[in-house]
Amino acid sequence: MYNPILGYHVKRISGELKDINIEKRTVSGYFSVFDFKDSDGDIISKGAYKKTIEENGIRGKNRIMHLLQHDPTKPLGKPTFLEEDEYGVKFQTTITDTTYGTDTLKLYDDGVYKEHSVGILVLRRDDSLSEVIKEVMMFEGSTVTWGANELALGGFGKSMKGNKFIERYNTLQKAFYNGTYTDETFLLIEKQKKAMEQMIRDSLLKEEPPLSTPIAEADKIKQYFKDLETKQIIKNLF
Questions:
Q1: What are phi and psi of 75, to 5 degrees?
Q2: What is the rounded distance in angstroms from the CA atom of residue 100 to the CA atom of residue 105?
Q3: Dist. CA 191–CA 207, nearest whole Å
Q4: Among 99, 131, 157, 230, which one is most buried in terms of CB atoms within 10 A?
């Protein structure tokens, strides 16, 4: 998706978390993976980042940043390792010693942050397959949250399977009640948690569709949240 404020495309391409070290304040994983069709219908091929990393990475001008949520006012640092491998764009970053940097590390450690994405300009596409991107200019990689807006794209069954929805909600619950973050971060966690709860509330108010399987994904989720009422976790939602 093109961001007119940033002036480049933000690509959510399932970049993964691999490792964190709280004491050393390091995070490693993938900002981007190859041969994955994103929401724009684009597929980035191996080699697309090679030139930009050589020119603007740590052995070049060292201008590629690691941001929080693609926010240029919240840099987490510059990658100390950034290379293509067979899977994608692998990185390691030492997270800056700021309040939001410390919160970011805690959110990684608590399982709230697991994903990454990139900010790029597309420079060249495949001549015969226009959806295949052959070369990009990379400005930044970002630590990103799985957002409530993504849930809304396809409902429970399409964008996030039942068990993953439940797992995500439980992670947010644990972070909200047991975490030691700044007030700003607590507000962000609460906002996402309430958005998920609103989706459950809206779904429960809708007429039940005929089930094509004995237990559909959406029904697993709704039953789970109904059961939680007895534990007073969502007692006041309805």
A1: -70, 135
A2: 9
A3: 27
A4: 157
For residue 88, the SS3 value is strand
- For 17-42, how does the pLDDT look when each residue is reduced to its tens digit (9 = 90+)? 899 999 999 999 999 999 988 878 89
Please, where are the H alpha helices in the chain? 50-56, 99-109, 148-159, 162-178, 183-205, 217-228
DSSP of 144-202, one letter per residue? E---HHHHHHHHHHHHS-HHHHHHHHHHHHHHHHH----HHHHHHHHHHHHHHHHHHHH
The answer to whether the beta carbons of residues 93 and 113 sit under 8 Å apart is no
Q: How confident is the model at residue 207, as a pLDDT?
A: 52
User: 2-8: long-range contacts at Cβ-Cβ below 8 A with a sequence spacing of 24 or more?
Assistant: 3/70, 3/119, 6/70, 6/72, 6/119, 6/139, 8/119, 8/120, 8/121, 8/137, 8/139
